[in-house]
Write a structure and sequence with these properties.
The chain has 13 helices and 13 strands. Strand 10, helix 10 and strand 11 form a beta-alpha-beta unit.
């Protein structure tokens, strides 16, 4: 295996997918300790990886058509000798080819013809011969298969998601102003997902938050992006002063700091559950149409709540069930409250997560 000196990782989006690729970065750094490693990422998510201890550079790319000439010029100027395409799409494969790197590696089962542009294709284990999107393999392990192909040791995957002293201090100041005591545990709640089909009903999140906020020793922190500000109003009305509403008020480093500080995160199958798992915070994840085997919180100590209906997981973007969203609405408030309280009372999960995607799954 060549000792590559300049490596580019292509994983531009989405936020949760970028988190899933972090153990591959760490594995490649351990395999090629002297290499210059860069990461091609969309500007929206760049803050998550900038400053990562195993990364030398983050190349921001918006992927608009008029930005391509400059982007290609930048990549050629960097003279990468290896491109690792973890996105697996036509656009990412084409960029890998146009980068000028002599070696380009990606998934042999990649979508949209992306394997056409690779010099090395990594085949994922798939004994059933299923389509790419149905392969029952966790996204973290799927990415790590590329690192294994390059001779890396992946027996103990690590995310090594760095911390920002400024963000840590800012969040501690927010918590202090909210009157959070040293002996109180934080329950972070991420109630909104960009896909309605993956979202547990908002009113049930409100009910859970209200119950948890009344528990001695617990405080509820509401998180979400700027576009989710309207969804925070029902929580403010129901929970009152016991709620710490950070919706739309955190940068990505702030969000990492909040989730590292929390005892447990409650959320749908969305980016916050993956960031929380990456920093060692226990997760209560609510799953319906998606498979926790593929995108559940990675590591030990987490709990996935789901109902094994005949149609779930369907991996669809729209619900075809006569009983709309039954896979999610079948999850009851009482079991979510009980599970979250139990995890909040336990010691934080270890920051260095195990290789397996093992987790408790309640049905």
């Amino acid at each position: 295996m060549p000792e590559y000196k300049r490596i580019l990782i292509v994983k531009a989006s989405s936020l949760g997918d970028i988190v899933h690729a972090l153990p591959t970065l760490v594995a490649l750094r351990n395999r090629f300790p002297k290499a210059h490693i860069a990461w091609l990422v969309k500007p929206d998510w760049a803050e998550l990886i900038e400053g990562h201890p195993d990364l030398d550079a983050a190349i921001r790319a918006d992927f608009s058509l008029w930005s391509w000439p400059r982007l290609i010029s930048t990549l050629r100027h960097e003279r990468f000798d290896l491109v690792v395409d973890l996105q697996g799409l036509f656009r990412s494969g084409l960029l890998a080819r146009l980068s000028g790197a002599p070696e380009r590696i990606g998934f042999a089962q990649g979508r949209e013809g992306s394997p056409w542009f690779y010099t090395q294709g990594v085949w994922l284990p798939n004994p059933q011969g299923r389509p790419w999107r149905l392969i029952e393999m966790h996204a973290v392990d799927r990415n790590l298969a590329v690192a294994v192909h390059l001779g890396a040791d992946v027996s103990h995957p690590q995310f090594r998601l760095g911390s920002s002293p400024g963000a840590d201090q800012a969040i501690e100041a927010v918590l202090a102003r909210a009157g959070v005591r040293a002996d109180e545990r934080l329950v972070a709640v991420a109630p909104v997902d960009r896909l309605r089909v993956r979202s547990w009903p908002l009113d049930r999140f409100v009910e859970v938050a209200t119950v948890l906020a009344r528990e001695p020793g617990l405080r509820v922190v509401l998180i979400g992006g700027p576009s989710e500000r309207p969804y925070a109003e029902p929580f403010r009305q129901a929970v009152g002063e016991r709620l710490i509403d950070l919706t739309g008020r955190t940068t990505l480093p702030d969000l990492v700091a909040v989730l590292r500080r929390a005892s447990v995160l409650l959320g749908n199958d969305s980016a916050p559950i993956h960031i929380a798992a990456a920093v060692g915070t226990r997760v209560v994840a609510l799953f319906g149409p998606t498979s926790p085997l593929k995108t559940g919180p990675y590591g030990d100590g987490h709990v996935v709540l789901r109902k094994p209906l005949a149609c779930s997981p369907c991996e669809r973007s729209t619900c075809a069930n006569v009983n709309r969203y039954e896979c999610l609405t079948s999850i009851q408030v009482q079991e979510v409250v009980g599970t979250t309280k139990r995890l909040a009372s336990q010691a934080p999960a270890c920051g260095e997560l195990s290789r397996t995607a093992a987790r408790a799954t309640c049905t």
